[in-house]
Amino acid sequence: MSEGDSEPSVVHPGEAGMRVVVVGAGFGGLKVVRSLARAPVRITVIDRRNHHLFQPLLYQVASAALDPSDIAYPIRTVFRRQDNVERVLMGVVEDVDLEGRAVVLEDGARIPYDRLVVATGATHSYFGNEAAWRPVAPGLKTVEDALEIRRRVLAAFEHAERYPDEQRAWLTFVVIGAGPTGVELAGALVEIAFHALARDFDAIDPRSARVVLLEGGPRVLPAYPEALSANAQRQLEGLGVEVRTGHLAKALDDGGVTLDDDTRIDTHTILWAAGVRASQLGDRLGAPLDAVGRVEVAPDLSVPGHPAVFVIGDLAHIAQDGECVPGVAPAAIQAGKHVAAQIRRDLRGGARVAFRYRDKGSLATIGRARAVADLGRFSFGGFFAWLAWMAIHIVYLIGFRNRLFVVLSWGWSWLTFRRGSRLITGGRRAGWPDRPDES
Amino acid sequence: MSEGDSEPSVVHPGEAGMRVVVVGAGFGGLKVVRSLARAPVRITVIDRRNHHLFQPLLYQVASAALDPSDIAYPIRTVFRRQDNVERVLMGVVEDVDLEGRAVVLEDGARIPYDRLVVATGATHSYFGNEAAWRPVAPGLKTVEDALEIRRRVLAAFEHAERYPDEQRAWLTFVVIGAGPTGVELAGALVEIAFHALARDFDAIDPRSARVVLLEGGPRVLPAYPEALSANAQRQLEGLGVEVRTGHLAKALDDGGVTLDDDTRIDTHTILWAAGVRASQLGDRLGAPLDAVGRVEVAPDLSVPGHPAVFVIGDLAHIAQDGECVPGVAPAAIQAGKHVAAQIRRDLRGGARVAFRYRDKGSLATIGRARAVADLGRFSFGGFFAWLAWMAIHIVYLIGFRNRLFVVLSWGWSWLTFRRGSRLITGGRRAGWPDRPDES
Q1: CA dihedral of residues A3, A9, A13, A17 (deg, nearest 10)
Q2: What is the pLDDT of residue A12?
Q3: Which of A24, A190, B131, B186 is least surrounded by Cβ atoms within 10 Å, i.e. has the fewest?
């Protein structure tokens, strides 16, 4: 580690130790802080949210199976008992003063650091069509996104019931992008239509709903081994999802999707699971960015030329064996642990070491008792993959209450085929009562 | 029943019986439909929401103890197995064509009826100051209202933590109106500050929060016996609530409340539990309205001069023994049962009978193990009133899942002193990041 040796060993201990500022309390940020629990540092955690969100289950909020609070946990409570966490601030970091070693909040307040960890993640990208596509095709990154998708999906069935003549477009759902999120959403949509709502309507049959999963590449779950992609596609089609690979969306609007071969799919409900773009804070770190805005970090995960600043999680472009480490929770957690170790090395004057991602495998769920697992040596689909998926997600959830409520919700849904959070709330949609709370 | 005899016995059976349209699926509307389960009628239920909301527990959503889906239930699912419910429509009734016997939806669609039940409830009233007061003092009638209150309350503590110099106003909470909702909100606010958040902040002590309960009348819970009001006030003050009776708010703004004696309370969080105004649909029924917009119904709960139309619940002004029947769930339920009975009488050509409200008592909770109960012959406060309150609310909740999850949430909160839904989501507030989901 050449660039890491000179400066960072110059510790600025202040009164009571090195000041570590962690921006973003996702999987990576949390892990850094927890791994520093016994280190002689003074930690400030800054997040624009008051809660850590367990994003892998967010699609279950969007599909009315779980409540937001089942998969979110107050950041303050996570660190309640960790003494060296001096402050947790809800705020937005707008800039980083690399020379002055301070982050700048949205109101101009400066928070000084000796070591900074930036873990602000990613948001959706609409490939340059933000203004036109974002309103008609919500993505899934936040609690608000999930509730908006839930609202649109449930309201589509209500529209179809009121206007049976227009039911074809209202009962068509298009998911764009067949990564894990797109696959999970498509599977969940089919289950809503075929099971949860099947018997609740009079003028329409929800089972006539059409769920289309569009993927520009040649196969679903492009990051998985080919055999698993084929397995996943078979499972999706078995559920009733119409999988269309090798097709890009050319235009999106209120009334539907136009594909690159000029096929038109009439729909009022388009969900976006295609592109991501790294958080804009990456622009402020004076480092080269890759095509999707990720910071190309040094081998120790610091910013080249600024060894006091680390970037981890979906904001980091970590090159390894000629590839980029994937933007998944385990990679963020491993990187968080690594950064905490480097900060401890700095404290005792040791040299930095390079990060190495260990791929322990991937899991994606498709629906009731359907999933695929890629554990390196073993890869398999179906019921056992689904059990593994459930077990791992429960283990990684934070908080006893969240685990209990998720297990109970899953058990109830599994037994009854129903969904516990079928609420249409908030929002505004053309042709629909504006704010439905004024009587 | 003089006015009920002539016209309503002329049944228009159509193909398969009398068409009954029920507008509003609150306590009253649901009861009408359920009580007609075996009647030879064809029922249409119209609500602007897709869910029935258990409003008595809505303050627990506002105070982060429960999730919206714990106290809401899809209307379609309620009636899934009731064969004579022909349609459930999500829509807004904008007008009633009394001559043509049809309701008119927001898109102009007409739904014909032989009997109409209007049960669209009430909303907040700001005594003529809607435009200025509503934005600074949200009321509590809908899921969105509850989530907005939750957001403001939790964000106030976050503001105080970031700006300790301004903490006095951020840690002051004013609840206007000391009916059951105001009392419950005030008690819940104190519990949040003194228990749920007490140890989670660094720069502030949430226990220094000040909760003021303002009441224009001489005592809290004005509809209860005087001894219980005094009991409730003692319990509130024991919790730490500052009760100010005999004071009206003269002006509300972003920075605080000015009382009628020109006292100023600096606060950024004002909650409105003072006035209600009946649903505007009452204007369309050609009947006299009382001062708060309620329809003055005939003794059989029909609209005077229009015996085919009934009004129940918070929209109805039901005179009994020189008083107005209170706007509480039991009264709406009893009225719903009565209207169903009158419709059955119409079917068999019987005469209508007058409604008689039976007051079975009232319960209001104040906080952990604190409540007051007024059961007519018995009235008492404290732990046993609290147990009775919990039992009755669980019994009246709809759905096994909701009951289970509410009981578990209460058990968890009671054991841990914590609140399971501490999420700040949605909304926008001055001085705060606009939409916190863009990074």
Answers
A1: 90
A2: 45
A3: B131
A377-382 contact pairs (CB < 8 A, 24+): A379/A224, A379/A225, A379/A227, A379/A228, A381/A228, A381/A231, A381/A232, A381/A235, A382/A235
To the nearest 10°, the Cα dihedral for B436, A77, A358, A392?
A: -100
CB atoms B154 and A422 under 8 Å:
no
Question: What does each C-alpha distance from A425 to A55, A269, B297, B436 come to in angstroms?
Answer: 21, 16, 32, 19
Retrieve residue B433's tokens.
Answer: 């990041």
Helices (H), B163-260: 167-170, 180-191, 226-239
Residues B77, A195 contacting (CB under 8 angstroms) = no
B437 φ, ψ (degrees, to nearest 5): -110, 5
Q: What is the pLDDT of residues B174-202, one digit of tens each?
A: 999 999 999 999 999 999 999 999 999 99
**pLDDT for position A14:** 47
The residues, any chain, with a CB within 8 Å of residue A424's CB and separated by 6 or more, are A150, A151, A154, A155, A158, A436, B49, B50, B51, B90
Radius of gyration of chain B (CA): 23
Mutation site, B425, B428, B429, interface A, largest A CB count within 10 A: B425
**pLDDT of the residue at A429:** 41
Q: Say how far apart CA B236 and CA B228 lie, in whole Å.
A: 12
pLDDT in tens, B233-285: 999 999 999 999 999 999 999 999 999 999 999 999 999 999 889 999 999 99
Distance (Å, rounded) from C-alpha B283 to C-alpha B294? 9
Give CA–CA dist B393/B381, Å, rounded: 17
Per the DSSP assignment, residues forming a β-bridge with B117 are: B22, B310
Task: For chain B, say whether A67 makes contact (Cβ under 8 Å).
Answer: yes
Residues in chain A within 8 Å Cβ distance of B197: 76
Is A439 in contact with B279 (Cβ distance < 8 A)? yes
How close, in Å, is residue B340 to chain A by CA atoms? 23
pTM score of the predicted model? 0.92
